[in-house]
C-alpha cells in the first residue's frame, strides 16, 4: 500500500510541471537578481514584497532564488565573467520561470549575460528610474515599474527643511551614475533655477565629515547614497548617512525610506516595500502565462513625502511648511498621548471640579442676592414694625409732649407775672427761663426720637455704647409705662460697652423686648409689674443685654417658637416683633434667646460682639 502511494506521488510530481506548461503557465520559479547586498534593509524590504505577492497569489509553491550581484563593490569584469560561469553551473538543472531584476546594475548585467544564461526567460524590473539610459537597457521581453525621485522633489524637500535655501550640497557617489541619480544633475537648470551648488560627491568620508560640519547657513544637504569612500572602505549607504549626519551642521534630505531615522530630516522617499510588491505582482502575472507585451511598463506610485519628527524639531521646521500629504514618523508622543487614560481622567476630574465650583459660585451668588433681598424686606418690615409701635404709643407720646408744653406755659405765665412787679426778681426769672429751656429740649428730644423711629434708613454701622441704647429706649417708654402702670428699671454696666451697629435697629430690638415685657407685666399684680433692662460684659468678647419681666413666663415648649415669624399668642399681635429682632441681631453677628426666670417671668437675652473683638464688622 505504502509503495503504491509513493508511485502515485512520483507520477503526479513528474507530470504536473508539464501540465502547467501545457496550459500556458510558466515554470514556477522566480530568480531575484539584486544589484546590491540583499542584507541591506532597502533590498530586504523589496525582497519581502516579492515574497508576499508570491504567497498571496497562491504561488507559494513557486521557488524563489535570490542572487545579490554586489556589483557596486566588485566592478572587475573578470568578477562578472566568473559570476556568469557560476550561474550557468548553478542553474543548469533549475529552470527559471521569470527573472526579477532589482536596480539598474541588475539590468545591465542581464543585458550582457541574459542571452548566455536565460535567453528565453522574461524579465520584470524594479527600482529603476525612468531615463533614456535605463530604457535602452530593456529587451522586448522585459516589463516593470519605474521608481523615480526627481531633483525637483529633492529641492522641494530641501526648501521645506530650510525655507531660506540658497544652496544645495550634493553628497553621495551615486550622483555620478547617469542611470541612477546622475540624471538629477541634468534636471538642475530647471529644478534649482536660483540655487548655488556645492558638489561633494566622491569626497572621501573623513574629508566629507569635515566639510559638512562647516556648511554655510541657508543650505541643505541632498544625500543620494554612499557605497564606498573611494579608498577601499565600503559602507552600507544607511550607515554612511549616519556618519555624515553626525557632523553635519545643516539638514539632510534623502530619497529612501530605509534612510529615515538615521539623522536625515526626510524628503520624497522611495518605498522599497511598494517596489517589491509591484515587481512581485507583475512576476506572478508572467508566471501565470500572461505574455509580457500585455503587461505595460508603468510609472508606479512608490514615492511619498515622509519626514522625521525629531529632525523637524531640531531644525525648527513647522509641519505646516512641509509638502502636501507629508507623513511624519518618530513623533514622540506627548505626555497626554502617552498617558491617555490618566490624562482623560484628570481632565474629567478637573472639568467636574470646575463645574462644581461654578455651581457653588452660582449658588453663593444666588444666596448673596437672596440675602440682600431678605435684608431689604426685613428693613421694610422693621420700618413697618416701628411705625406700628409708634402708632401704639401715640397717646403716651402726646401725653409726654403735653407735659413739657404745659410746664413751659405755666413757667411763661409765672415769668410774665414776675415781670409785672415793680422790681422783678431777675434771678428767679432766669431760673424760670432755664426750666423753660429744659422742658423745650425734652419735648424736642421726644419728637427727634419719634422721627428717627419713623425714618426708613439704610443700615448704618457706627460705634454705639449699648448702655445708651437701653437707657434711651427705657426713657422713651417711660410715659407709656406710667400709663400702663409698669415700673421700668435699668441696671447698666459701669463701663462703656461699645458695639458696632445700626443705632435705630438695635434700639428697635430693645424696644420690642421691652414692649413684650410690658405686655406680660400688665396682667400681673402691682408688685410684679416690673421690667428691668440690664447690660453686662460677656466673656470679654461680647456684651449681653437682657430684658427681665415678672409676667406669666414662656412655657418651655414655646421658648424656641417665639422667634418664628407670625407666631403670636396675643389677640392683637402680629407675631413679627421677635422675628425682626432676631434678624437684626444676627445681622450684627449676635445671638438672641429667651429663658424662664426662676420665680416666674421671662428673660430675653441679646449677645453682641464687643467692638474691640468685632474684626469682621461692617462699617
Ligand atoms: P407679638 O408681640 O405681636 O405677639 P412677638 O414676635 O413680639 O409678636 O412675640 C411673639 C410671642 O412671644 C408673643 O405672642 C408671646 O406669646 C411670646 N412672648 C414674647 N415676649 C414674651 C414675654 N416677655 N413673656 C411671655 N411671652 C412672651
Which key phrases capture this entry?
Heat Shock Protein 90; 619 residues; Rossmann fold; binds adenosine-5'-diphosphate; 16% strand; five-stranded mixed beta sheet; alpha/beta; disordered N terminus
Would you kindly provide a written description of the structure presented here, covering whatever features stand out?
The protein is an alpha/beta fold. Among the domains are: 151-271 and 301-337, Response regulator (Rossmann fold), CATH 3.40.50; 459-619, Heat Shock Protein 90. Helix content is 47%, strand content 16%. It has helices at residues 2-22, 41-56, 77-90, 104-117, 132-135, 151-161, 183-191, 205-212, 237-247, 272-287, 309-314, 335-338, 340-392, 394-420, 426-454, 466-476, 478-484, 503-522, 577-587, and strands at 29-34, 63-68, 98-102, 123-126, 142-144, 167-171, 196-199, 219-223, 252-253, 266-270, 303-308, 327-329, 462-465, 487-491, 498-501, 530-537, 542-549, 591-596, 602-609. The chain has a five-stranded parallel β-sheet with strand order 2-1-3-4-5, with helices on both faces. A five-stranded mixed β-sheet has the order 14-16-17-19-18. Helix 5 links the parallel strand 4 (123-126) and strand 5 (142-144). The radius of gyration is 56 Å and the shape is rod-shaped. The protein binds adenosine-5'-diphosphate (ADP). Residues 512, 516-517, 520, 549, 551-552, 554, 562, 567-570, 573-579, 602 line the site of adenosine-5'-diphosphate (ADP).
Helix-strand layout with pairing:
Blueprint: H1 2-22, E1 29-34, H2 41-56, E2 63-68, H3 77-90, E3 98-102, H4 104-117, E4 123-126, H5 132-135, E5 142-144, H6 151-161, E6 167-171, H7 183-191, E7 196-199, H8 205-212, E8 219-223, H9 237-247, E9 252-253, E10 266-270, H10 272-287, E11 303-308, H11 309-314, E12 327-329, H12 335-338, H13 340-392, H14 394-420, H15 426-454, E13 462-465, H16 466-476, H17 478-484, E14 487-491, E15 498-501, H18 503-522, E16 530-537, E17 542-549, H19 577-587, E18 591-596, E19 602-609
Helix pairs in contact: 2-10, 3-4, 8-9, 13-19, 14-15, 16-18, 18-19
Residues 512, 516-517, 520, 549, 551-552, 554, 562, 567-570, 573-579, 602 line the site of adenosine-5'-diphosphate.
